């Protein structure tokens, strides 16, 4: 028997269906609330609102669980790659060897940008924010239609568009970095796999190719894989909001880049480095910083510790901590900011204040450390986040697009402005 919840308001009552997810999550379906009672819900920030049902990602913040299509993130981090995870998220299952090979080939073919793209980059100042460039350029991809696209089946067209986005986003990112540095663009190398090719386009020179170590490639692959999707966060919800109008996949993902750009969303790992720099430049010891963070009368915050969703250890952080140890050990980087980070980590993990409140280092803390060690500048951190999140955005867009019952998103509001007011001519206004 289907379960229901009863809502009573004054002399009216309504039975609302209770929806149960595959992991036992319960939600009250309020689709008929307004027509039945005249009421709407008010939930600023949507913290208690389920905007959709989805079969892509499952999170249990209390237990520290993250699964893509049912597969624990720990298994994917150990056995898979970012490219395979992209396929898994988008198509709902692990690919066969033939499908994976075909997808990799599509990514290789899709990596170069049309030569006219260079003129678009030249239109930006050299110090333009990389995320602004990324958003504009993701939208611009749609302005360069592929030859033969009009004769493709819908399935083939979608697959090719997905490959275009996942592949070109790293080329755009590398070009935006090189534009900011006044360096010539480096074309993709068709012989290199996804992550190594990105690092090549970032750091090679016309006279010497950058060859990243296995530890660096693996660590960046993990960062991308662990950021590939994270349920209905701000940027993902933006994809669904924009896509609900039947906007194309490029416009929807470009909008998501804009949402991710916000410092409360994608800028968290940048905030970690800003904090480390402030501690270092201020001559503050790690121990003093920890004490400042515990002081309720001090405005100082320890960035990169705790998480809004995970009330336990962020499962992604456990994985990246091991990668960070390997990368720092292999590179032998002598960086005072990274020294501060390691000291903060050690102190916080042993401090009862942080342990009791479960304020453990999160994924942003370790991803920032790794990218700093690799040589990726701080203003590119959120761009790397966007590269990693692109498969999730595509998967969410596809899931909504394939839902025949999906409606255009149109939230309601509670109006709090003035009541009906007469227009006053300008010569009679005080």
Automatic annotation (TrEMBL):
Catalysed reactions, as listed in the record: oxaloacetate + acetyl-CoA + H2O = citrate + CoA + H(+)
Q: Does the keyword Transferase apply?
A: yes
For this chain, one GO molecular function annotation is: citrate synthase activity
Q: In which pathway does it act?
A: Carbohydrate metabolism; tricarboxylic acid cycle; isocitrate from oxaloacetate: step 1/2
This protein's superkingdom? Bacteria
Which keywords describe this protein according to UniProt?
Acyltransferase, Transferase, Tricarboxylic acid cycle
Per the record, the similarity remark reads: Belongs to the citrate synthase family.
* Protein name (Swiss-Prot/TrEMBL): Citrate synthase
Q: Which organism is it from?
A: Paludisphaera mucosa
